[in-house]
UniProtKB/TrEMBL annotation:
It comes from Rhizophagus irregularis. This is HECT-type E3 ubiquitin transferase. It comes from the Eukaryota. The lineage of its organism: Eukaryota, Fungi, Fungi incertae sedis, Mucoromycota, Glomeromycotina. Keywords: Transferase, Ubl conjugation pathway. GO terms for molecular function: ubiquitin protein ligase activity.
């Protein structure tokens, strides 16, 4: 009989006949026979018959023998393989039904027959688990061979891991599982560490992800993770929910152990969900199944599930607002002691539950990379979740106020802190949340965060937390996992403060206030536990200043400089940056340098043709330039740096002129890559990035003002909603309307789409599938619109420019500066400047000296100029209207004043390059036109000043010259 039963099993799981591999076995004598002999009900004797007990025992033994025989032969594994084929058939038929709207009669019959086959086989599987219905004798006999635990483990491994099984089961089959108490049994057995270990040992990565999908759908449809929230829900249901979450998290972590973000020796297979995968990959599984399992898991990040998962946080009442006051008066009032104790106990219990939930989402985000955006957006914009999480975090620990996360034990090893997962998830979501907060919400209404009570304490905490983590990180390894997500929040807060200050004082950001002095004790403590690269001088290092540590290449100090630059004064970072640049320029000889010939009327074209294909190492080296004049002849002279400055200045001026089409401008005339320029080679943007970087390396200030969002990208930072100001005010206005719309947003008939002009035509481009905008997703809609405009629209052009820029200046050096600071590095300071500073570093030629009467008149006139005229003067002599950062000691070459005759320069040495003054102009006084005007050679930062006898003449001619439109020509 056992052999017959096994033959029935082998028969029913395959095809209708051996010669037909297209038609599955769906019904027949074999399946009816198997049901008959495995159903415990057929082994129960009804009525009072002689020797009924003996007969009943014999029958039970026979049934148990059948069960044990089938289990030994691999019954569940074989039925699972048969179910895989039938589920595949059902899903194909359902997919066809969606396309044709109605199946043919043959397909309908096939679908019903396949459903009946799965129903029959599922019954047989449950017969082997349903011990109680067979009587106590059956249970006792069977447990001697296969315990209920072992059978359930086999059921989970082979049946519950069938891809998308639950998606193909109707409610009738689900009732069968519920009657057998399968959902609760699965939670109970998988929450046991030993049982879970056995299950995981029997699974591949694919099995685990499909098991996860089926369990999630089973629990959801069985109401064991009911999405309705009840104030009176029992502790047992809460515990079942938490156990379920821990089971899913264990499966996620098991899958993660088989996954890598990069292709490695062990991880050589590409997986539709996991990316690079080291587990067993079943080629029989269609890729469409992986989309279906994601659909099964999606309920974990839907609003209803989030509501249940974070219910205790969302309903957390700030009963501890006066906690500090209670603590102060504990000695005076024993009632307060009890109140504080109850509050702390409630917070601790809630924190343990929150920790489990946060770990689940962190595991999902880590494994399901393709779903990150949807998951984080749903969490971030769930009403009140972010502010409630922050207030909840502020209550953790004996003292609250985030001090639990600043303790030595947490800083040294954050992963050991039980509640670090709560902070980690908050950081991920808060980073996104901050990007879409506009000034009205953050500064004016201060909803939901108060500047004084939330934003400033948050800034202070993350500043200290990130600094402490980095200071305690290993010398060569990476900082702890949470560091990067915490740093992103910190940078968002710092950038918002730098754009519109909320801190009211700089002290909350600067932690190393004087880098030239020995570190204060509070900072020494952060460094004292770190092993020096040379143990012999570790004592000496304790007395070193931060700047000295940088010069000694202390790895921790360098990490702080690169990753937390705002904690160090800007002037110090600028000095370090200049030192880096100086050391990075290769020392090429004349023979190894590059020589290019450039036509004055075609500087960009000629420069790109000759330098566009040159390797980066040579671009960093010496570039000698020879200009070709209008007649086609090479200009005389030896390039000692001046012509290169002129070349790069003119090239940048030409390329970044909006009329050229490579760059567009905001309404404030700030530049950013033009997304409509589809004809220009992307490589040209890369070349221009290199030229801007080369100008920085040479200390050449360029008169180019970039849009803030573009500067943010150049420094590797995120962009804000406010960056749309001036870029697309109409879009920003519409986003604000949507965000603050109080009615039913669906009445506006909006979809996830954006209009843009392409080749003179306005087209609508879908974003995120073009779905309808609802009240639930209107914040996501706002985010996606801003993201498209700021990040996606000119993505290729921006990436090319930044890649070129960073190929010359590494990104970690650029991270030293905020976007406004980088603009200062590029084009100098906006503030007024001291004439005395310029005078201090001026060089004189041709007979001039500092106390020469004409020179004294010149400096006196310059002192009396307003900022506008002083800027025009700088533009006249250096080609940039702003002074170099840090003062004129950094102007290269130094500002030089050369004496020339006031009527003729025939007796003067010939300069290779001078500025041609206007020979005539309407509206200027005759005295201005009488005699020679001052001239300049911007490539040498040279002013050619005639030796005028009167101060009034110097003043008039100088003002006339600096406000004239001049051109370049040979003397």
């Amino acid at each position: 009989m056992k052999k017959i039963l096994w033959q029935c099993v082998e028969r029913i799981i395959g095809y209708a006949n051996e010669n037909n591999t297209k038609t599955l076995y769906l019904t027949g004598t074999e399946i009816r026979l198997m049901i008959y002999f495995l159903d415990p009900k057929f082994y129960i004797i009804k009525g009072n018959l002689p020797n009924s007990n003996s007969i009943s025992t014999l029958l039970s033994q026979n049934l148990a023998a059948f069960h044990n025989f089938l289990l030994q032969k691999g019954f569940y594994m074989l039925i699972g393989s048969g179910m895989f084929l039938r589920v595949d058939s059902i899903l194909n038929l359902k997919s066809r039904a969606m396309k044709v709207k109605q199946l043919s009669k043959d397909d309908e019959k096939k679908l019903n027959s396949t459903n009946l086959w799965i129903s029959a086989c599922l019954r047989c599987c449950l017969f082997l688990l349903d011990l109680n219905s067979g009587g106590s004798n059956l249970q006792t006999f069977t447990e001697q061979h296969y315990s209920e635990k072992n059978k359930l483990i086999m059921f989970i491994i082979h049946i519950m891991s069938v891809p998308c099984l639950l998606s193909s089961l109707d409610d009738n089959w689900l009732d069968m599982l519920k009657k057998s108490n399968i959902p609760l049994k699965i939670i109970e057995i998988m929450h046991n560490d030993d049982s879970l270990s056995q299950i995981l040992n029997g699974l591949t990565g694919n099995n685990a992800i499909f098991l996860m999908g089926n369990i999630v759908e089973l629990m959801l449809r069985s109401d064991l993770i009911s999405l309705s929230i009840s104030e009176t829900q029992s502790n047992s249901s809460t515990q079942q929910f938490l156990n379920f979450i821990e089971i899913i998290n264990s499966l996620l972590q098991y899958c993660q152990s088989l996954v890598s973000s990069k292709q490695l020796n062990m991880h050589y297979q590409y997986h539709p969900i996991f990316k690079w995968y080291s587990g067993k990959n079943d080629s029989k599984i269609p890729n469409s199944y992986f989309n279906l399992v994601i659909a099964q898991l999606e309920c974990l990040w839907q609003r209803s599930f989030i509501l249940k998962a974070f219910n205790h946080v969302l309903s957390f009442k700030s009963v501890v607002k006066d906690q500090s006051g209670l603590l102060k008066s504990r000695r005076k009032n024993s009632f307060n002691d009890k109140k504080v104790s109850l509050v702390s106990r409630k917070v601790t219990i809630d924190a343990i539950e929150t920790k489990v939930v946060c770990r689940l989402y962190l595991s999902i985000l880590k494994l399901l990379d393709g779903q990150n955006k949807n998951i984080t957006m749903n969490l971030t914009y769930f009403p009140d979740l972010i502010p409630c999480l922050w207030k909840f975090l502020m209550r953790l620990g004996p003292k609250g106020n985030m001090e639990i996360f600043l303790s030595d034990s947490v800083i040294k090893d954050p992963e050991k802190e039980p509640f670090i997962s709560i902070l980690a998830l908050f950081c991920i979501c808060c980073n996104i949340w901050l990007t879409t907060k506009d000034d009205e919400e953050l500064y004016d209404k201060q909803i939901p965060f108060s500047i004084e009570n939330d934003i400033i304490p948050m800034s202070v905490f993350f500043n200290k937390f990130c600094f402490a983590l980095l200071s305690h990180s290993s010398l060569e390894g990476c900082p702890p996992t949470i560091f990067e997500s915490a740093r992103k929040v910190l940078f968002q807060l710092h950038l918002k403060d730098s754009r519109r200050s909320f801190s009211r004082e700089e002290n909350i950001w600067l932690l190393i206030k004087d880098p030239k002095k020995s570190l204060p004790k509070s900072l020494k403590d952060l460094f004292k536990n770190k092993k020096s690269s040379s143990s012999s001088n570790s004592k000496d290092q304790m007395g070193m200043s931060f700047l000295e540590r940088i010069q000694e290449n202390d790895p921790i100090s360098i990490k702080i400089l690169n990753l937390l630059p705002h904690t160090i004064p800007f002037e110090t970072r600028l000095d370090i940056f200049r030192d880096y640049l100086k050391k990075s320029i290769p020392n090429y000889s004349e023979a190894t340098g590059i020589m290019i010939k450039v036509r004055r009327a075609h500087v960009l074209d000629d420069g790109y043709k000759q330098l566009g294909g040159v390797i980066d190492a040579k671009i960093k080296g010496r570039i000698r330039v020879k200009f070709i004049n209008e007649t086609g002849a090479l200009e005389d002279g030896v390039d000692q740096g001046g012509p290169f400055k002129e070349f790069i200045t003119q090239l940048i001026a030409e390329a970044f002129d909006p009329s050229y089409g490579l760059f567009a401008v905001t309404k404030n005339s700030l530049l950013y890559p033009n997304h409509q320029n589809t004809t220009t080679k992307i490589a040209l943007y890369s070349f221009l990035g290199k030229m801007i970087a080369r100008a920085i390396q040479e200390g050449i200030l360029v008169d180019v003002q970039f849009a803030r969002f573009f500067l943010s990208k150049m420094t590797g930072r995120a962009v804000f909603l406010e960056d749309l100001i001036g870029l697309d005010d109409e879009l920003l206005k519409n986003i604000m309307i949507v965000k603050k719309y109080e009615g039913n947003i669906e009445d506006l008939g909006l979809y996830f789409a954006i209009d843009e002009e392409v080749n003179g035509k306005v087209i609508s481009k879908d974003i995120m599938g073009g779905s309808r905008v609802t009240d639930d997703n209107k914040i996501q809609y706002s985010y996606y619109l801003a993201d498209y405009k700021l990040n996606q629209q000119a993505k290729e052009q921006t990436r090319a420019f930044i890649n070129g820029f960073q190929s010359m200046i590494p990104e970690n050096w650029l991270r030293m500066f905020s976007p406004p600071e980088l603009q200062h590095v590029l084009s100098g300071e906006d503030a007024d400047w001291e004439v005395s500073d310029l005078r201090k570093y001026t060089v004189y030629h041709g007979g001039y000296f500092d106390q020469h009467i004409s020179i004294r008149h010149f400096w006196s006139i310059l002192e009396d100029m307003n900022l506008k005229d002083k800027s025009a003067f700088l533009k006249f002599v250096t080609s940039c209207s702003k002074p170099p950062l840090g003062g004129f000691r950094y102007l290269q070459p130094p500002f030089t004043i050369q004496m020339i005759s006031d009527d003729s320069d025939s007796n003067q040495p010939r300069s290779r390059l001078v500025v041609r003054s206007l020979l005539s102009s309407i509206g200027h006084s005759k005295s201005a036109l009488k005699g020679r005007l001052p001239m300049s050679s911007t490539c040498f930062n040279l002013l050619k000043l005639p030796s005028y006898s009167q101060k009034s003449v110097i003043k008039e001619k100088l003002k006339y010259a600096i406000n004239s439109n001049t051109g370049f020509e040979l003397a």
